[in-house]
Design brief:
Rossmann fold, 6-stranded parallel beta sheet, 5 helices, 30% helix
């Protein structure tokens, strides 16, 4: 699983729960303080500084180049969505937790040709629901 915004308020919890549940965890952020927090928690198999690596480079590192089963998008940013959503494997899941004012623009190529599922979630949902 990949968590975009892994060094934030919900993200740091997400990567810890993911690791505790036995998932291969990819933590993604774009701030030095957030990257430091992710490192200090020692629960990510891959730590990504989105300022320094492209999505394609990260995708190759995930599951032998197949991508991740699920991507959790926490930031209210189109840029964060565009970076993280393509990390989902074919038939993978992108889970949106944030509420950007203008919504997200989603590539139909991701949904149609790669069979990626887009899910929204709120409090009370579990990983099993994804």
């Amino acid at each position: 699983m990949a968590v975009s915004g892994a060094g934030g308020g919900l993200g740091h919890l997400g990567i810890q729960f993911g690791k505790a549940l036995g998932y291969h965890v990819v933590g993604i952020d774009n701030r030095d303080s957030s990257i430091d927090l992710i490192r200090s928690l020692n629960c990510c198999d891959i730590i990504v500084d989105a300022r320094k690596e492209t999505t394609a480079e990260v995708f190759k590192k995930c599951n032998n180049g197949l991508g991740v089963d699920a991507v959790l998008i926490l930031p209210e940013s189109q840029k964060a969505f565009d970076y993280a959503a393509p990390l989902a494997r074919k038939a993978g899941t992108v889970c949106i937790v944030s509420f950007p004012v203008n919504g997200f623009k989603i590539s139909s190529n991701e949904v149609v040709f790669r069979d990626v599922r887009i899910r929204g979630t709120g409090a009370g949902n579990t990983c099993a629901d994804l």
